[in-house]
Design brief:
The structure is a single chain. The chain has a seven-stranded parallel beta sheet with strand order 3-2-1-4-5-6-7, sandwiched between helices. It starts with a strand and ends in a 5-residue tail after the last helix. 43% of the residues are buried. It has a single domain, classed as NAD(P)-binding Rossmann-like Domain (Rossmann fold, 3-Layer(aba) Sandwich), CATH 3.40.50. Helix 1 packs parallel to helix 2, helix 1 crosses helix 6 and helix 3 runs parallel beside helix 4. The chain is globular. Helices cover 44% and strands 13% of the residues. It has 267 residues and is α/β, with parallel strands linked by helices.
């Protein structure tokens, strides 16, 4: 990433923060954005401590506003003179059962998770094209497999996978690569190992997701475009029987967590 400039959304926490830190550690410069101003400043402080004061520029933004995309790209050009990479890690989880969801919830989640990705790529296109740029979007294992009370979130992530493939075909002739990462569950705080629902017997870490972003953005992935890379501890490869029998306890814990998100927890 030496000498490259990246725009990272959702940079105030978890995988977005880890991605901004990883890009700066690899020699890149970062325009970090989020709607969470205190979290964004905490990310910037860590980047500056690790990589120097000039390694990061921060800008709070509400990604439901289409005009925010051009503002962010302008910030990158003004600060660093170019843009090589767009990483869209911002997310609205849109939790809740379908009968309780409002049109406003759908509009917000679709805007943040999908619309912002398209708006930012569109605004950045001329700059990415001149520098053989890359785009890394974020899907989810829930784009391919349903779970209770997550229909809105899953729908947005399925849309991201479609957008990734279409943009890869559309922008490939212009030497811009577009890929997506499909992460498994990455808790905001480290959790103990031993969850049998995952073949690797543990949850992922934000640093592991960030490492995959760095790979897809780098010259090591120069002939990879239109791919959806699972970074999920093998859960997407697992047979459904792995959530039965001896692993029923872990599966029940996960279902209970989803119900709590939906506001209808039960034993």
């Amino acid at each position: 990433m030496h000498g490259r400039v990246a725009l990272v959304t959702g940079a105030a926490s978890n995988t977005g923060r880890a991605t901004a830190l990883a890009i700066a550690a690899a020699g890149g410069s970062v325009v970090a954005t989020d709607i969470d101003a205190p979290g964004l400043e905490a990310t910037a402080a860590q980047v500056r401590a690790d990589a120097g004061d000039t390694a990061v520029v921060v800008q709070t933004a509400d990604l439901t506003r289409p005009e925010a995309a051009a503002d962010l790209v302008d910030t990158a050009i003004d600060a660093y003179g170019g843009l090589d990479l767009v990483v869209h890690a911002a997310v609205d989880h849109g939790r809740g059962r379908i009968e309780a969801q409002t049109p406003e919830q759908w509009q917000r989640a679709m805007a943040v998770n999908v619309g912002a990705a398209a708006w930012i790529v569109g605004a950045a296109l001329a700059h990415l094209e001149g520098r053989r740029g890359a785009v890394v979007l974020f899907s989810s294992i829930q784009a391919q497999a349903g779970m209770p009370a997550t229909s809105l979130y899953g729908a947005t992530k399925a849309a991201i996978e479609g957008l990734t493939r279409h943009l890869a075909v559309d922008l490939g002739p212009r030497c811009i690569r577009v890929n997506a990462i499909s992460p498994g569950y990455v808790p905001p705080q480290p959790k103990p190992a031993g969850d049998p629902a995952y073949p690797m017997k543990r949850y992922g870490t934000a640093d592991e997701i960030a490492a995959a972003v760095i790979f897809l953005a780098s010259d090591a992935a120069s002939w990879i475009t239109g791919s959806i890379l699972p970074v999920d501890g093998g859960i997407s490869a697992a047979h459904p029987a792995m959530t039965e029998g001896p692993t029923v306890t872990a599966a029940a814990r996960w279902r209970q967590r989803v119900r709590r998100f939906a506001g209808r927890s039960r034993p």
